[in-house]
Structures are given as C-alpha cells and as structure tokens.
Amino acid sequence: MADDGMLLNFQLGTEPLKRQVKFTGGSWRDRRRAAKSARKASGAPAQPVNDDAEPAERAPKRQRVDGEDATPRSFKGRTSFEGWESAKGSGHGGHGGHDSGRGSRQVVSRLFSSNPAQKTAVEEDAKEWKAPQPTNAPLSDVANFGTLSLASRLVDELTKMNLERPTAIQKKVIPHLLSGSGDAFVQAETGSGKTFSYLLPMLHRVLQLSRDGKQIHRDSGVFGIIVSPTRELAKQTHTVLEQLIRPFPWLVSTAISGGESKKAEKSRIRKGVNFLVATPGRLADHIDNTKALTLSTVRWLILDEGDRLMDLGFEEDLKKTIDALKRVEVAQKTLNGTPLDLLPDRRVTVLCSATMKMNVQKLGEMSLADATFLAAEKDLDEPNHDQGVLKAPAQLHQLYTIVPAKLRLVTLISYLRSVFSRRGRTMKVIIFVSCADSVDFHYELLKDPRKPELPESLSKDAELISKTVSKAAYLTSPASPEVVLHRMHGSLAQAVRTATIKSFSACKQPSVLVTTDVSSRGLDIPSVELVIEYDPAFSFSDHIHRVGRTARAGRAGDAVLFLLPGSEEGYIELLKESTPPTPQSYESILERGLMTKLEFPVETSATPANGKSYHGKAEAMQLHLEQRILNDTRQLELARNGFKSHIRAYATHIKDERQHFDITELHLGHTAKSFGLREPPGGIGAGIERKAKSKNRTGRDKPAAAKGDGAARGDVDGVPDQKSTHDLFKRKSMMLMSAGADEFNIG
Q1: Structure pTM?
Q2: Virtual torsion, Cα 707, 711, 714, 715, nearest 10 deg
Q3: Where does this protein have compositionally biased stretches of type Basic and acidic residues (predicted)?
Q4: Who wins on pLDDT, 657 or 424?
Q5: Which of 50, 454, 557, 570 has CB atoms 3.0–4.6 Å from 550's, for a disulfide?
C-alpha cells in the first residue's frame, strides 16, 4: 500500500495514565465545584470554564408527586436546597475539610455545610456538674409525718410507701387544712408533693368521723372532689388516693374522666363514693345528668394545676361546678344520721398552681374566698403576681445544645446512644415533641422492624400496647442491648394511653417515651433520669413542667433542650431566670454517640461508615434514614405529616416568646431533613386557607393567601415568583399564629 505522507506522533511521557473522573448527580454547580477540587488535588492546571455554557449531562429532575405544589424551601426566600453530590474517587465529602468521605462511592449528604452561623459561644465546662442541695426534698429537720398531727394509721401507710418526712410545702399546707376551714392558694415547684398535701388532711378528718359507734361508709356521701386537667393526672391522683385508703375498706374513691364508659361511672356513683377524682368536662356532665351525685356533703373542692385547667379552656365547666356547689346547702349530717361536726363548717376550696398568671387569678376570683396563700419558700409570704413561673428544682441539671436543623435527627439519635452506652446510668428517658404526628413519625422511625414482639414483662397488656410499645433500633449499645420504645399523645384511645403509661412506669429495662405535652403535667413516673425537649415548649411554664418529670422529691435529674441557631438562641436568656443552663455542643454529642459500632435495622444502599470519623458516620446515618423513608410509602407519609404539623405547631408559641420562635426564620429545606425528607412537602397552609375561606363566607375580607388566582399566589406560567411566594408564606404564618392550636393536634 502506498504511503499517503501522514505521520502520527504520540508522546505519552513517563507518568502513569490518570483515569478521567466523571461526576454525576446534584446540581451543575456542585459538579463543577467537585471537578475543580479534584483537579486541584491532582495538581492539573485549571481548565477554562465558560460560565454561560451549561454541562451537557445534567441529572434528570425529580418528577413531582401528584398533589404536591411548588412550595418554597424557606420562609426567607432561600430556594437553594442543599444538594447531594457524588464523591466517586474525589474524597469530597462536603463537610468542611473532613476527609471522612474519601474513597466513598455512595451519595453523601452535606450535613455539615451551609448551616446558619451560631451566635452563642459554647464553652463546655470540663468539670463534672455537682447537684446543689435539693429544693423539693423531704425536710431533714422534721422527724416524720406524725409531727403534723396526722392519724397514726395514715403515717404507717406513708412509711410503707417509703415516705417518712414531709416536704416544705406539705409542712405548710397540711396543718392549715387540718385545723381550719379557710380556702387556700398553694404555689410550689413541680415534684414537691402537692398531691399528698391536700389528700392527707382530707382523709384524716374523714377518718375521725367514725366514732361512738358511728361508721362512715361509701353511701355516706361525697366529701372531697379533686379536679385534674388531664386524664393521666386524674388517674395518677386516684392511684395515690387508693394506696392511702387501702387500710380503710369502708372508704371508697373513684375516678371519672373522658374516654371512659359514662354508664359505668354512673353505676359507681350510684353505689356510693366518698372521694371523686375527675376531669372538668366529665364532672360538669355528671352534675347535670347524674341524679345520684349529691353535693350537699362535699367539704373540699381541689382545683389541681389551675394554670393548666384554664389554658385548656375548662373555664365554663369549672364555673358550672363551682356555681352548683354554691347553690347547694351544706349538710350537717349524712343520710344515715352520722354528724359531720368534725369536718370544716363550710366548703373549702384549694387552688394549686405553679404560676400566678392572669387566668389563674381569674380562677381564684371565681372560686376562692379570703384564701390563704401558701408557698414553700420561707421568704415568700405574699403571692408574686409578676412571677410567671417558679424555678425548676435546684438539683435538676439543665443543658442546652444549639443544633442546625439538618443535624437534629442524627444528633438526637447520637445523644440517646450516648446516654444508654453506660450500663445503669440512665433507665428512663422522656422526649417531648410538638405534635402527635411528629410523635408517630419518630416512634415508627426508631422502632426495630426486625423485633415486632414485645418484651416478656409487658405481655399482660399486649393487645392494648401493641402499637405504642416496641423494641428500639439505632439506640442500643453493648451496655444496653435492648431499649424499649413507647409513644404517647392525646389522639390515642384512653385505654391505650393508660396502658402505655403503665408500661413505661413498670418497665425494668432502659426505655424511651416519645410524647407531646399530654405527659408534661403532674405525672410521677419512677426512675426518669433524663428529659429531652426535642421541640421547645410553647410557653416557659410548660418548659418548667416538662423538665419537672425528673428530679422529683429530692432526686437528681438531667434535662436537655434542643435549640436552632439564630433567633432561638435568645431563649437561653429566659432559661437563666430559672436555673442557669449548661451549654453542650452538638459536635461533642455526635462524637460520643457515634463512637460505638453502627447497625442499621433495614438494608439500604447506605452502609454504616464504621471506622470513619463521626462526620462520616453521621452522614451515612442520615443517608440511610432518608433512603429508608423513600423506600417505605407509610414512613414517607408519616414524615410528611410530621413535618407539616411541626411547622404549624411552631407558629403557636405564646406571643411573649414568639420573638425567639419566629416562623419566618425557619429554613424549610433544612427542617425537612430533620424528618428524613430531601425536600419539604407542600400543603403546609392548606388547612389555614380553608379556614380563611370559611371566614370569608361570613362577610370578612378575603385574604390574598386564600384567593385562587395566580396573581395572589405569585404564579407566572406555573413558576412561583420568589418574592411573591415569600410574602404568601409570611401571610400563612400570620394566619397560623392567629389560628392557635386548633390547626394541629398537640395531644
């Protein structure tokens, strides 16, 4: 063949050939950044890039799910959602200089970049916190309850319950109710023993009526009515009362509350009871409709947790009960002729409350007459009307951690892993979240699908708690190979709620309760060493009651509050008015919690990053959780509902504290990641829009957010304008704030 005159000269050089790395996934800016980092690491000269040109291979857009609208990812107009990038061979993990993702060939979540700057400097104290002298412990200068002139058989029963000495509030209240007939306003910190302070004097004076051959029986009439704001607190008060009257079988108590059989309650009242524990609504119902309920013998009306009674809207029911008692003349003898001369000569009303808020003062004006103010503090002789709440117990160690929204979920899991990593250190943990949908999401996510069977110790109520108690995944450790998970909120049936609380109280293994504020008041659950406020309380008084589930009766306890960087950091100054909290960095939580080997209960393409830094482990866990949720339709629905209810709940913080919890400051994309979602679902304000439309039919002005035209929504050819959408969500947030808690279920 003739030579055509062409010469091909290939000069390869002595260096080995380098394989061209191809970056896929994420946005084109992320791919550009990763390619530039790879070239810089290899020492290759930078290639000129045409900024106007777009890469030929762009990742396909995610198809929109039916019914999903184009919701912006931030109330502040930040529409750029932190993407996902491929780390194939580049070692670029997207976490600010850490090389935990080097060599990984899976998609790595950028958890540690683009987070809001933290305003508060966190300087963790290396010294171990030492609890001061408890403020709600039994008094050391009092020998026993016998010094308060209580009946010896009552004192013996208290000794069997391991109660030997009274607390400060009991020392003040019991003598007042034993000897006098005046009303009382009782104010004391949570866990100080208010329940015994009013139960013991009532029982003592009723027991004295059985003399000279006369005997008090169940048909002698109702002597005391205790009104509790929640069913759980009513059940607990009744349980304590039952323990006290166990040696006296002729005395009978009962509890009536919503969710129970009204017919069965009427039957018990007809047979006769001496002490009635009730919720306000059911009590008002029986006063109207149960003829067997006679009020002439009632000598004590106890309004427990008065601030909560008013907060929950029971004012009309309480007024009905108080007015009914005022209309009935006080009987001097029982139906069988036993004189009641040893009881107070008038009806005594005792109002117990931790606060002196305006609604509590209103309840006091409605129910009390010439009341004596009784408080535990020696120097507090008069009610402080400017005082919002009492301080938390001094021996309660309060901590706070400022966690970026994207890292909340993995930080919560890491914290629980760390507290259960020391054998016997923590037995029971209560996690408070804002709404029932969030409870359901976190319960389903943290439970172990591989172990559906209940622990053997809980098999008695297996049918009732089959959907509220399970074994936990992610939280176990060599020190705690099995952790029992519980869930609790107000949307559960009453029988299920009662069985769940009973299970959590009786559980002998390390256990966790995920709950709403339905469990924040009055419940005395043994061995609760830690309270986690994953979502801050809607008011500071609710915060005090939440953390009061631990450090009770002089015992020590810990409480941890999760806050977001930014406006929520101002809440720390409010915390300092109670007990100065201790800061704790989320980085140290992640480092301690992810030290032990990770195990995932469900197989996904993300694998545990054991052997890497805690940054890599946290990103692997977040990726696994997101993939697990995406692969499970039910989990995905729970995550979306939990996210939307959480956003609605966030708008209902009380007005005085809303400056710290500004819904317009929330980054929806970051918050969605805390629910294992890669982007925020739409329809957050749908319920509010419907409510606004219903108001428009009554003649009110129609808000722009509720209109259906494109101009109001800021839509141009189906694409939402950034400024208009920001204004829309601001209007929705204002409607959420004014709508209150009826737009979501806080339990």
Answers
A1: 0.72
A2: 100
A3: 55-71, 121-130, 698-716
A4: 657
A5: 557
